Amino acid sequence: MPQLVTKRRSGTSILAAGALVASLLAVGARPAAAVETVPDHATPVTACVGDATADWMFDDVSQGHFFRGAINCLAYYRVTEGYGDGTFRPGRNVSRFEMVLFMERAARAAGADSADVVADFATTGSDPVNRADMALLIARLLASATSNDSRVNVVLESDGTFTVGGTEPDDAFIDSRRSQPVTKDSAAGALFEMGVAQGIGGGNFSPEGHVTRGEMAAFITRALAHTTARPEGVSIQQYLPGEVTVSVRDEDFAPVANADLDVFSIASPEAHRAFRSDGSCSSLVTDESGGRSCEIDVLDSVTGRDGELTIGLAATDEPELTVWAWTGELGDVIRNGDAGLVSVEVSTQGVEATGAKVTNSLPENATHVRFGSTVTVTVQLVGVNGLRAVPPEDGASYTIVKEAFSQIDGTANPTSSRLTQRSTEVVAVDSTGKIEFVLDGVDPDPHDTGDTGDDEILWRYTVTPVPDSPQFDTPVQNVEVVFTDADPVATTIDLATQVKYLRAASSSTRPVNNVVIATVTDQYGQPFRGARVELDTSSPPPVGTTGSSGIARIGYQYSGTTGTRETVTASVAGGGPTATIDFLWAEDPTFGFEQTTNGGTYEVLAADPRRNEVVVDLGTPTVVVYDGNDRFRLDGTIVSLSLFESVLANELDSDGAGILLLGWSSRDPDDQADRTNWFLTS
Questions:
Q1: Residue 26: is its pLDDT beyond 90?
Q2: Count of CB atoms situated within 10 Å of the CB of 282
Q3: Which of 330, 364, 466, 612 is the most exposed place for a label (fewest CB within 10 A)?
């Protein structure tokens, strides 16, 4: 096993001691290795996935051969073709000439510069390559193929040594440290840190030992995992618990930027129910990329310039998910079994805890619970995207304080009600990072027929992290849950509209119709039927009555002819709850703004990709129209129409979205064939 170097060398001191050549030849001046450790930058993903796992049927590579997977993977990426007789000869030593060919081809697959990789290495000769030479070439490959945008960047420093992730490798092979120049020893250490070189045991690397073709295949494929090398088409892998990385590559294995991706998932035990009998997506799957499952639409995400898209999976209690991914053009639909649809089973367990949250089982908008019911309160460690997280090594504990107050025929109030129960305890999270406790309420006066008031029990709880345990975003203090026998009353009203904007009326005598959707719930969080909801848009006010779902759709007319932001108020008749919602009435731009913004940009208020419309703030909400013949730039970079629309849709629909700014030039609204330049700034 490689060993931990207890004292790091200084590149500047080495160079100060003599010329660069002398530093490269120095052997004995470096610190000795001491303590065993593990690779700091090994990767759980691989280049040998999907089509890269196919069997190339080499006659001398048996089904159980130790290097069979690596050899087939190397053949897929066109790094090797084997011999003309159908063999690969995995036990044969690699010559210098062969090694140069292998590394040049691997560089092409990895997106590296082959000249940087081979450099001054002798390109001819049948002498066998030793392991130190191979380590040097592979480290150069990683230095050329990775960058600051990579998860781990390998750098070839000016003194000829390699750093990994911004630091000098902590680990060294004992025999390499004692016998090799600093360049080759540094290369071997870097490969260990990356999980590429595993040594021969006992902390040794055998740097002067020969390299067989089978070993070479293993070294190169492990290195390719750290580069952009992925199979042609779409592949999907899990890098960290709770997230997946989807890769798209062309026929030369080059990254494909701005590729539209549809990603969806389901709990792995239910994977057989993900598709209907006709192959279409069932309603049980969860779309992870922002649009409709099994369809490429404007809400779907796109790959970056590296041809990658990393998605944090939606919060879930499922420990294992099966995730599918595919790419296509806008409007394309895929079915189970179609070419190009790939999947992977991923774990949501083991996510590193970055915080904690407290939830309870009350329905949304509920403030009360009926007697005889229970409420479960859950403390859960969370990590990326709110996914459940495992406890840190030292564990995590929380102080839980619970208080109960009772009141008969009146409102439960801690200042006037009787304290019936109080407890304080420190509880450690379980192996899944969770604590649960239950609140319940029994009617203190179940035979209260004819009473004028409602019986109530108030539970109040506070949860506080023990020092060094993951913290809450906001304090969890004196959270109240009321158990009662009260009849349901309308307590909450939520408003929505069918669209985000409409064009203002062309004439005040021809008003435009709009619809407000009101959802009314009671104190138990259940739909409230029969609520009379009024809008304040006119006199007399438009009215609607909620049905069994608690929903009322109320239409009204708007006769304004200019762009404006309208605030609509809805209330439940008889002194019930009220709510407001803003709605955009948009107008066409003036002639000057229709042609160009002269370099100016304006805030985007709404967009409708189905109509190719964007509403911007020109003092009033104003509609501008684009088409597929136009040019689109995002933050100065030319992008596709689908990416332009995806950014609009995702930003405007997401919570806490930032401000989008839009400008345009060379627009002729009277010419359908004009080519407008659009400038979107995120």
A1: no
A2: 15
A3: 364
